[in-house]
Amino acid sequence: MQDPIQLELSRRDLLISSAATVAVTGVAGSAAAQSAGKQMAYVTKVNFTVNGERRELDVDNRTTLLDALREHLHLTGTKKGCDHGQCGACTVMVDGRRINSCLTLAVMHDGDEVTTIEGLGQPGNLHPMQAAFVKHDGFQCGYCTPGQICSSVAVLEEIKANIPSHVTGDLNSPAQLTAAEVRERMSGNICRCGAYSNILDAISEVGGITA
Amino acid sequence: MRAFTYERASSVEAAAKAAASNPEAKFIAGGTNLLDLMKLEIETPTHLIDVNGLGLDKIEATPEGGLRIGALVRNTDLAAHETVRRDYGLLSRALVAGASGQLRNRATTAGNLLQRTRCPYFYDPNQPCNKRQPGSGCSAIGGFSRQHAVVGVSDACIATHPSDMAIAMRALDATVETVKADGSRRAIPIADFHRLPGDTPHIETVLERGEFITAVLLPSPVGGKHIYRKVRDRASYAFALVSIGAIIHPDGTGRVAVGGIAHKPWRVEAAEAELPKGARAAARGILADARPTEQNRFKVDLVERALGAVLSEARG
Ligand SMILES: Cc1cc2nc3c(=O)[nH]c(=O)nc-3n(C[C@H](O)[C@H](O)[C@H](O)COP(=O)(O)OP(=O)(O)OC[C@H]3O[C@@H](n4cnc5c(N)ncnc54)[C@H](O)[C@@H]3O)c2cc1C
Ligand code: SF4
Questions:
Q1: CB B158 within 8 A of CB B145
Q2: Neighbours of B260 (CB within 10 A)
Q3: CB distance A187–B39 less than 8 Å?
Q4: Per-residue model confidence as pLDDT tens digits over A129-161
Q5: pTM of this structure
Q6: Does a structural domain hold residue A11?
Q7: CA B263 to chain centroid
Q8: What angle do CA B13, B16, B21 make, to 5 degrees?
Q9: Which of A164, A194, B82, B256 has the most neighbouring CB atoms within 10 Å?
Q10: How far is CA B142 from CA A147, B34, B37, in A?
Q11: Cα–Cα distance measured from residue B40 to residue B124, given in angstroms and rounded to the nearest whole number
Q12: B212: Cβ–Cβ under 8 A, 6 or more apart, which residues?
């Protein structure tokens, strides 16, 4: 039998969720909601830092980091493109590394530091990469741009950190900052307007690629 | 996505036990394959066990002179590791040929081995697929099969295993280390880890329910030239049509594992004896029992030519 007190607790937790009705029947009726005798909820509390600010959320476990940012925290700079990790529009930085926020759950990021496009810079106080995208016209419709910019900033860091890529010549000497390296490393960000050459110009300027 | 409960595992043993006690539970590591499939309701776990906090993210030297790669080591960190680049270059090369920078930052060693096929019919819940729904039929046989397998196929399924990393692991004779729900451990040679489709294409590995991967072990380095050559429809960020993972020694001997052609990393040790004679002889052995479809017959030639390119790169 389920412990009535714990059941009560999870019911209360559930009622604040957007999917409460679906989830409550699930908890009350399903043995699958138990693991090793523990009663578990369909909603979990998560604490993380977003753009330097501590945030605490109770989210339906299904909520991706992307949806938590957009729908719960109203940081709509991060975009939902394909929602399957194929386009890169949802790219954000977690603990300093770029990831697809659509293919990770918010509840998996307890204690993490998230940086979105809003955290890189704001109008009037742009990050150098944002300013370079404007200067070089690194976009047309602009939908993929936040992801492109987050990725661009991370790509320069990855080269500095000597992480190899598919086009790196010698694995045992430091990764080079070249146009070919940047192109390869940016392949996870698709731009359907085809602004690629201007995006490369923007990254080259910030990175200091001359050729 | 279906609703599920969620827990952060407190130990390896607890994770294995939790998974074994609930047939509808799944481990989640990077989540880059599992969540993709959960969104499409191809995977429908009712409980997720998050194994990211278990400290399995280390790469350590083994007393035998090899490497022990924690199951949760991210693909980026494995590819960038100094020893891996120096002594197991094939592994670095295969990793960076896969997915994108963002995905590699999340994808883990164990998750990569266990990623599921990219057969388009498997991904389309409206189509029959024996792997997704046992007994429903295979839409790829007689359908669009350009990217499918040519060796080790069955009448039930002709899907490929999509991992690049696994091809390198196969050539390097890696071992998968696991913990079962009862706490017992075992070491599975990578050659035996993935299964051929046979009549049960939905069963892809020899793992038992709840069995948890803790690490992948590499034996001591074997030297030689390490080459990974991936042939695909675009230059980056695409799955392989055919890939060759090879270690070639100055005398022309070596090892070759092939990706994109089978339900598991494909390696025929007997055919490796032919390597010094050239790509044609070796490819003939590798593809001895090939059963291509009209649409993927080109892969038979492509394996030979890609291998030829690898052998001339090794000489040059
Ligand atoms: C757009 C796109 C392009 C891609 N391109 C490529 C490519 O070109 N080449 C390539 O090789 N891959 C490619 N991938 C696949 C990618 O490499 C995999 O998604 C990734 O490696 C999976 O690792 P993960 O840690 O995220 O696994 P998860 O999604 O977390 O898990 C996958 C499976 O492994 C199980 N699991 C995880 N850890 C353990 C453990 N320790 N013990 C037991 N079971 C476990 C999970 O239960 C799940 O069933 C691509 C993916 C995407 C989305
Ligand atoms: S090849 Fe395998 S995965 Fe693809 S449709 Fe047939 S049974 Fe399904």
A1: yes
A2: 28
A3: no
A4: 999 999 999 999 999 999 999 999 999 999 999
A5: 0.93
A6: no
A7: 9
A8: 120
A9: B256
A10: 40, 28, 25
A11: 8
A12: B12, B15, B16, B19, B27, B51, B71, B178, B179, B180
Tell me whether residue A17 is in a domain: no
- The protein residue whose alpha carbon is closest to atom 2 in ligand 2 is B157
B224 DSSP 8-state letter: S
Residue of chain B nearest A108, judged by CA positions? B50
What are residue B246's phi and psi, to 5 degrees? -135, 150
Conformation bin of residue B142: beta by default, left when phi > 0, alpha when psi is -120 to 50? left
Distance from CA of A122 to the nearest CA of B (A): 24
H-assigned helices in A122-178? 128-135, 145-160
The answer to whether B180 touches B139, Cβ cutoff 8 Å, is no
Q: What does the block give as tokens for B11?
A: 């130990």
**How does residue A1 score in pLDDT terms, banded at 50, 70 and 90?**
very low
Q: What is the pLDDT of residues B149-197, one digit of tens each?
A: 999 999 999 999 999 999 999 999 999 999 998 999 999 999 999 999 9
- Assess if residue A109 is contained within a domain: yes
A16: tokens are 């604040």
- A97 falls within a domain: yes
Residue A33 pLDDT greater than 60, yes or no: no
Find the CATH number of the domain harbouring A122: 1.10.150.120
ipTM surpasses cut 0.95: yes
Q: Please answer whether residues A14 and A43 qualify as being in contact, where contact means their C-beta atoms are separated by less than 8 angstroms.
A: yes
Q: How many domains, chain A? A: 1
CA-nearest residue to A82 within chain B is B36
Domain residue limits at A200: 43-207
What is the least distance, in Å, from the CA of A93 to any CA of chain B? 9
B173 Cβ partners below 8 Å, 6+ apart? B189, B190, B191, B218, B219
